[in-house]
Amino acid sequence: MSQAPAPITVPHHVAIIMDGNGRWAKQRGLPRLEGHRRGVETVRTTTFAARDLGVKMLTLYAFSVENWKRPQDEVGGLMSLLEYYLKKELETFIRDRVRLRTIGRTDELPPGVQKVLHTTIEATRHFDDYTLVLALNYGSRTEVVDAARAYAAAVAAGHENLNDGSWATFRRYLSTADLPDPDLVIRTSGETRVSNFLLLQAAYAEFAFTPVLWPDFTKADLAAAIADYHRRERRFGLTSEQLVKPAAQ
Ligand code: FPP
């Protein structure tokens, strides 16, 4: 009798640095915005591919705090694409029970984007099997500064005790407060940087780098990254032996 293969360990939370839209467009002699447009198609396919593969939460780095420094027409184009994408996806999110959330300083986004974000977040709030998190106007350093400020205010107001000093307390002031840490962080386009993305939250994440440009990223590429994750041993600072035999209490 043949034995069934052991089930693959699927990361609960996958986070992706979507990179390479510009190069994809340049290789084809197209404007950069065309690369972003194709990138939006990949956002759509990857959202559902991740869910099919058993992932429960997908975080996508859609716009960083540094991205405002890009040429104004590119920034404007990205904002229009975001608004268009959200309006178009609302029905699909509801039909397919996708909860939308965001991290980052979304109050600095254009009013039209904020409005459609608010509508979509409210309309999908009650779905609990699969969550898409868009990192928008996000950067870890600004997130830490915002969290430190809020934490200091809470201490001053007597709601927190400065002597507590625990990560469990401080993390509640991050924009990811009620999200689990990512298990797997993927970056496309061959770059091997973290670019101010989930620096604290990815402290124990596994990283996967692929040369594929974001517009070309497929379900098979995602499945390959997950299969690679499955082969790794996550030790969280312990030894391999401790992982096999739980440490005595
Ligand atoms: C990096 O490619 C990608 C971005 C700066 C933004 C990612 C945005 C999208 C995929 C589209 C909008 C997102 C949503 C959710 C609607 P790059 O321009 O830095 O590529 P390059 O390094 O090749 O120039």
What report would you give on this structure?
This protein has about 250 residues and is an alpha/beta fold. The chain has one domain (about 15-140, about 180-230): Undecaprenyl pyrophosphate synthetase. It is about 40% helix and about 15% strand. The chain has eight helices and six strands, in the order E-H-H-E-H-E-H-E-H-H-E-E-H-H. The chain has helices spanning about 20-25, 30-50, 70-95, 110-125, 140-155, 165-170, 220-230, 240-245; strands spanning about 15, 55-65, 100-105, 130-140, 185, 205-210. It has a six-stranded parallel sheet, sandwiched between helices. The structure holds farnesyl diphosphate. Farnesyl diphosphate binds near residues 22, 67 and 134.
Summarize this structure as a short list of keywords or feature phrases.
single chain, 249 residues, alpha/beta, Undecaprenyl pyrophosphate synthetase, six-stranded parallel β-sheet, 8 helices, globular, binds farnesyl diphosphate
